[in-house]
Amino acid sequence: MTVILAVLCVLLLFAFIYERYRSNQISSELDKESMELDNTNRISDIILSNVHAFILFIDSDFFVHKTNYYIRTETLEELSKKRVGDLLKCSNSFLMPGGCGTSELCPQCPVRLAIQKAFDNRSSFTDLEAALDVVDGKQVFPLQAEISGKYISVNNKDYMVLTVHDVTRLKNIEKELKKSKEKQL
């Protein structure tokens, strides 16, 4: 009986040592993966801070999960529960207590329609030209934008990466060039 008990104790000791070894091995692998994830996040943050466009990672309810908007605009705000129109300070969003998606004009918004169609079809779109009125303080400014959206599925959830290029300056230059050419003729 003591031999059986001794064998059981030795087996339990080996099982304990093996489980401890596996636990340390798994912990080491998790630490390595965590470091790789931190490096990936740092790299994505560096890329986002150096892109000369607004990048928005959104879900199918138009909530923004990650963006470079605050870095690009040097704005100190919190991202919590902002939709696309709220983040971009769309005047229709700004005027409504419920924000983006609650104005009577939202169903006709070309940006909203393009994004929704892309989510519905699980597709992407490029170079949507849109004229937006954005609120800055108490003033409303026109913004000309080119917007592209890339649909992606992550863990069976629908997301989209939006790229918003402010082309207002370029459009104004085009208008001035056109006027100049017309004057020359």
Assigned CATH superfamily of the largest domain: PAS domain
CATH class category name of the largest domain? Alpha Beta
Largest sheet: 5 strands, antiparallel
Shape: elongated
Taking pLDDT < 50 over at least 5 consecutive residues as the criterion, the unreliable ranges are none
Strand content: 25-35%
The number of helical segments is 6
Q: Find the structural class using helix and strand composition.
A: alpha+beta
Question: What is the CA-CA span between the terminal residues?
Answer: 112 Å
List the secondary-structure elements in sequence, H or E: HEEHHHHEEEH
Percent of residues in helices comes to 40-55%
Kindly list the characteristics that best describe this protein:
185 residues, alpha+beta, Beta-Lactamase, 26% strand, five-stranded antiparallel sheet, 2 domains, elongated, single chain, 5 strands
